Amino acid sequence: xxxxxxxxxxxxxxxxxxxxxxxxxxxxxxxxxxxxxxxxxxxxxxxxxxxxxxxxxxxxxxxxxxxxxxxxxxxxxxxxxxxxxxxxxxxxxxxxxxxxxxxxxxxxxxxxxxxxxxxxxxxxxxxxxxxxxxxxxxxxxxxxxxxxxxxxxxxxxxxxxxxxxxxxxxxxxxxxxxxxxxxxxxxxxxxxxxxxxxxxxxxxxxxxxxxxxxxxxxxxxxxxxxxxxxxxxxx
Length: 235
Fold this sequence. Notes:
By secondary structure, the chain is α+β, with helices and mostly antiparallel strands. The protein has helices at residues 59-68, 81-89, 100-105, 140-147, 152-168, 214-227, and strands at 2-3, 15-20, 28-32, 53-55, 73-75, 95-99, 114-115, 131-136, 176-182, 188-195, 202-209. The strands form three sheets. Strands 5-4-6-3-7 form a five-stranded mixed beta sheet, with helices on both faces. Strands 1-8-2 form a three-stranded antiparallel beta sheet.
């Protein structure tokens, strides 16, 4: 079992995604350190203090924040959730961003002052909030068992998001965001984002299509993002 956002876009030969569980909260969460004055603790990114130092290891999160707030400063913050929260408590950083899904699974959602809208504020990583099970392609019985718990709406969203990621062919140092969701009328909406690491360029767009066209939708949106971006962003 894996967090889908951490799986390679192309799995090793002989492995397949046998099932996905219902998606947890897909949003990124803003967590503030105790040194942030009360006047700035209302839970909005524009209200962070001028020049506040943000801890993160995610180029996707950093690029989007830099684009929104060029005055912010950034430092590398790695480790598990507990390690990152302790760094905040110690005053190393004014704030950090964590996956809301991880906080919820650990019972720490109260640490977040706000969860960011995945289309309008901070586009998440492809597969964020999804637990996936991989199996050997030849192991028909295991695949059959996990197919019984495969959550179709989540599978459709994952297919679109990973197709977008694959079409861009970026590395882990390329700020790419992808978020797909089913609309009330049964159509699929996919939001994609591509940015320069320093936040000086950011391109975002949403497309809608039929759920059965999830892979094609991801490929089409990825091609649009590539065509509209400077040549130095992608290989």
